[in-house]
Protein 1
Amino acid sequence: MESRLSLAALAIAAAALLLPAAPSVAADRIVAAHEGKVDYANGGIGKDERAAMARTAGRYNLRLVFSEHRDNEMVAGAQLRVLDASGKQVFSLADTGAVTELRLPPGRYDVIASLAGKTEKQGVELGKGEHKELAFHWQRGG
């Protein structure tokens, strides 16, 4: 009888190991997707989401961070466009999180972000194996 109980307990433990771990709430709110030839992750509101995105940052080569006010408060809701060297739009997002990670082919890009009617544009050159970060900051409200 005792060996049957031990076998049952062992089977339950083995089955539990095969079940996927429940994702954190923060990971559930992070959007990882694909647009055209660009893989991206979008989220980063709150400490837990930023930590979850940091764990997958190695998959991407361009990190975009959005903030506002004098205290650099992280902000979501920017409109984002990425243009290649020829001016062709290769990526767009109507509603960013505070952090957007992109995987782009090596090359030169213009990144244009708008929030509350204010637009910022930054250029970036991505070489093979490089990872870069651009910060967009808006002074609004106070």
Protein 2
Amino acid sequence: MVEKKKRDLTEMQVKFLNYLFSEETKGRPQLAKKLAGYADGVNVYSLIASLKEEILERTKEAMAGSAPLAYFNLLDVLDNPSQAGAANALKAISEILNRAGVKEREADENKGPMSGIVLLPPKNGTMKIEILDDDSNEG
């Protein structure tokens, strides 16, 4: 695996990222820019573009950090399926877990290679039998 080299960020860029992911700003970039000390004339979209990789990495880390909470909420819904909002909670839990990298099992995950026999109607008094072997699920 190729390891990405982390680039050096300025003190203001680090502050911006820290504020962006704080309870204080709750992800609002304009407020994070202001609290980090950037001048009013600095374009927030340019700032975001310049820190795109760092923002995405922190977002993934934040989602991974939310996975345990989602897991325990899932257990709570399983214990109390009739609670108000259980269906909506399950949707939100599913989204968080999927985005954190905990994927749903694929329906075909436990199936081996598919094989089948196809019987075709007789043609001129003879019957043709074809055996199909579908190896497309192997990789």
Protein 3
Amino acid sequence: MLQQKDDASPAQSPSAALLADRLMLVTNRGPVEYDIGQDKKLRRRRGDALLVNSLFDGMNLVAKEGAIVNKRDGVLVLSRTSGAFQQLENASIPISPGDTVETAEALYTALTLPPQQRKRLSTLAREEVERDDLRGWIAHQVRDINNVIESKNGAT
């Protein structure tokens, strides 16, 4: 299932129309569904692929929530410029945010991966998000702040 972040329809978005043209395919899971409904969490739960394509650091929670709530071994297609990419690089199919051909190819790959590869990527994404949670993030921040303070004190 393709999901669009905003409420624009594919006809209103030239890049979405181009992507849809390049992604006219039918997989063994049925036709591609372009879903722009309102229940975002439900869509992430039942999607076969989740496209997170931010131009700059952002959309971290979308990628991470998708990894946690998905129940269909959905594959994450993730922009290299998203903030979550460093953490989820090995658990996703990477894309460049402005490259519609690469994005279409990545979505095709995500939708046609064998079940065992889909399971491996989705499990790895879920484990990465669960391992590096808010507590870990805060601990890293405190450690980094302490290192800066110590280096400033040692330099004086």
